[in-house]
Amino acid sequence: MVEKQIRSVCATFCIEGEYQRYEIVNSGHINTTYRVYFYRNGNVKDYILQRVNTYVFTDPVAVMENISSVTEFVRSKIKQKQKTAKRNVLHYCKTADGEYYVRTDDGGFWRCCRYIDESVCFENTDDLKVIEESGIAFGEFQLHLADYPVDKLHIVIPHFHNTVWRYENFRKAVEENAANRLQETEQDVAGYLELEEIATTPYKRQKAGILPLRVTHNDTKTSNVLFDAKTRDHLSVIDLDTVMPGLVAFDFGDAIRVAASTCAEDERDLGKVAIDLNKYEAFTRGFVSTIKNSITEAEKDSLALGVIAMTVECGVRFLSDYLNGDKYFKIHYPDQNLVRARCHLVLARDMIAHLDEMQAIVDKYYAK
Ligand code: GN1
Ligand code: MG
Question: Virtual CA dihedral for 215, 217, 218, 220, nearest 10 degrees?
Answer without folding.
Answer: -150
